[in-house]
Amino acid sequence: MKTILHKAADRGTADYGWLHANYYFSFSQYHHPEKVHFGLLRVLNDDIIDGGGGFPTHPHDNMEIVTIPLSGALAHKDSTGGEGLIKAGDIQIMSAGTGVEHSEFNASKTESANLFQVWLFPKLRNITPRYDQRTFKIEDRLNQWQMVVSPLEEDKALWINQDARFSLTKIEAGKSISYNNGFSGNGVYLVVINGTVQVNENQLGKRDALGIWDTDHFTIIANETAELLAIEVPMGL
Question: What average pLDDT score do residues 164-185 get?
Fold first, then answer.
């Protein structure tokens, strides 16, 4: 089992006025030669969007884009016809494929919104662009993994054009939970949304992340009640 620790305090940051961004990997004006990607995970941004702010219409291609709202709500619109609000408990996925344009704005004029935006390299290039969104019951992830993104039919999650899986959990203090890879040889990028946990000798706090590979199984112990995101991805580019 190999690991790489990315502490929250070591993330790249940018303040655009309406957008306060935290970058786990090189993005926009932030570049770190040792933080370009983790396997096929290319982007993980922890964004805070002020009330009334947002991303105007802009293009993407050949990227799997997953949006996970943590607080507040976002108004989304794209060139595939996808349109609506996404809020905490919702997961949105967009396959940019041959090319798509979209916009994303804070649905509130006064309250800030917080989200994770995640980009993965696709399995198949130049597919027809697609958009999907689903609401998941937050209570269904208590002390167990809730699969929200996966290409595997048995996972009953939003489909992704990659051998990758996204899972969320909320572990109560003192309890442990194991993660088992859905695809042998994949790595897992584990992000602590809130709380503190331990993975082997690694102590992780709020917004810390741990890349884990060369194992298909590991266990997490919650030092205090903690919320986690596990992004399982192929390791080879």
Answer: 98
From the list 78, 31, 71, the residue with the least C-alpha distance to 47 is 71
User: Which pair of structure tokens corresponds to residue 17?
Assistant: 């006025």
Q: How far is CA 31 from CA 2, 8, 23, 36, 45, in A?
A: 24, 16, 9, 8, 13
User: Is 193 a residue whose pLDDT tops 90?
Assistant: yes
| Superfamily holding 12-135 | Jelly Rolls (2.60.120.10)
**Domain ranges within the chain, ordered by starting residue:** 12-135, 138-233
Pairing status of strand 226-233 against strand 165-171: antiparallel
Contact 193, 206 (CB under 8 A): yes
- Rounded Cα–Cα distance for residues 104 and 110 (Å): 16
Q: Is the pLDDT of residue 237 over 80?
A: no
pTM of the model: 0.97
Q: Based on the number of CB atoms within 10 Å of its own CB, is 87 exposed (0-12), middle (13-18) or buried (19 or more)?
A: middle
Residues in contact with 111: Cβ distance below 8 Å, sequence separation at least 6, in sequence order: 51, 72
> Token digits for 73?
């709500």
DSSP codes joined into one string, 122-161: -SSSSPPPEEEEEE--GGGGBTS-EEEE-S-GGG-SB--S
Per residue in 113-160, pLDDT (tens digit) is: 999 999 999 999 999 999 999 999 999 999 999 999 999 999 999 999
- Intrachain domains 12-135 and 138-233 with the same fold: yes
Written as six digits, the tokens of 81 are 């016809």
Topology adopted by domain 138-233: Jelly Rolls (2.60.120)
Annotate 200-216 with b (16+ C-beta within 10 A) or e (fewer). eeeebbebbbbbbbeeb
